[in-house]
């Protein structure tokens, strides 16, 4: 990998979060040409010009550029290896850990010196809400959900509970098989997890082995599509991160 100056710093005990809007993800898709997109492929083949495929390409570019900026490395030269349960890691010692999630074009990534898990969901109607809750939620969680009389409030709580579970299994890399039995009431006896307030239409959660010392939310600048040619210059602008307790 070509040595470069590190453009982003990551402190011990800190989690930095990156949130990209759908239009920002799509703007990065053309930069995937020639890149070695060797992370997990899409679950099924998608038409090259489809929204889903272009978003997938844009997400791969975003992750490589962000990690390259932390490492002072060429994004094209980063190499990923599967860890336990298949979760991807950067190859090499003392590399930053990362986790990413997407929903309807939105993309969230968490970067830390320690293992991290993030999940993001666009809040939208869920016809299978009750079936999912019966399969994966604890009795206490189902009681909380059933106590919600307002339909929109119930939907928001459902996604808050779901993203917290997903962030925990993404921390471990276990996937859906790790969801069963993950109850909110047991969170204090295991890894740390916290809901995030990022956008009114989004539910999101962050998980870590222990509570981070600090958070920082970064957002992609409008000129991001050019920063590969400009020497990898993601935004240094930080925003206040709101933690929520539904």
State the end-to-end CA separation.
44 Å
Strand content: 15-25%
Helix content: 25-40%
Using only C-alpha atoms, the radius of gyration works out to 18 Å
| Overall pLDDT level | 82
The outline comes out as globular
Give the strand line-up of the largest sheet: 4-5-1-9-10
Structural class: alpha+beta
The CATH topology label of the domain at 1-114 and 210-241 is Ribosomal Protein L22, Chain A
Oligomeric form of this entry? single chain
Note the total helix count: 5
Low-confidence stretches: 184-188, 222-246
H/E series: EHHEEEEEHHHEEEEE
Number of strands: 11
CATH top level assignment of the domain at 1-114 and 210-241: Alpha Beta
- Major beta sheet summary: 5 strands, mixed
CATH architecture of the domain at 1-114 and 210-241: Alpha-Beta Complex
How would you characterize the overall build of this protein?
With 246 residues, the protein is of the alpha+beta class. It has a domain at 1-114 and 210-241: Ribosomal Protein L22, Chain A, CATH 3.90.470. It is 27% helix and 24% strand. The chain has helices at residues 22-28, 51-71, 129-136, 139-146, 151-172; strands at residues 14-20, 80-82, 88-90, 97-103, 106-112, 116-122, 192-197, 202-208, 214-219, 238-239, 242-244. The strands form three sheets. The chain has a five-stranded mixed sheet with strand order 4-5-1-9-10. A hairpin with a 5-residue loop joins strand 2 (80-82) and strand 3 (88-90). Helix 1 crosses helix 2 (51-71) and helix 4 packs antiparallel against helix 5.
């Amino acid at each position: 990998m070509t040595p470069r100056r590190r453009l982003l710093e990551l402190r011990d005990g800190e989690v930095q979060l990156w949130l990209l809007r759908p239009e920002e993800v799509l703007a990065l898709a053309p930069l995937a040409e020639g890149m070695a997109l060797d992370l997990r492929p899409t679950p099924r083949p998608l038409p090259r010009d489809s929204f889903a495929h272009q978003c997938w390409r844009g997400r791969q570019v975003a992750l490589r550029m962000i990690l390259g900026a932390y490492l002072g490395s060429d994004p094209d030269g980063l190499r990923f290896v599967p860890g336990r349960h298949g979760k991807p890691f950067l190859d090499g010692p003392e590399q930053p850990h990362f986790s990413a999630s997407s929903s309807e074009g939105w993309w969230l990534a968490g970067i830390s010196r320690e293992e991290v898990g993030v999940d993001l969901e666009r809040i939208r109607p869920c016809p299978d809400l009750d079936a999912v809750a019966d399969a994966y939620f604890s009795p206490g969680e189902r009681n909380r959900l059933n106590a919600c009389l307002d339909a929109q409030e119930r939907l928001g709580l459902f996604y808050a509970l779901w993203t917290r579970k997903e962030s925990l299994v993404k921390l471990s890399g276990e996937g859906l098989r790790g969801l069963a039995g993950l109850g909110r009431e047991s969170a204090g006896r295991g890894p740390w997890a916290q809901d995030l307030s990022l956008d009114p239409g989004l539910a999101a959660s962050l998980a870590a082995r222990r509570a981070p010392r600090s958070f920082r939310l970064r957002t992609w600048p409008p000129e991001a599509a050019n920063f590969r040619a400009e020497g990898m210059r993601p935004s240094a602008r930080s925003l206040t991160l709101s933690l929520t307790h539904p």
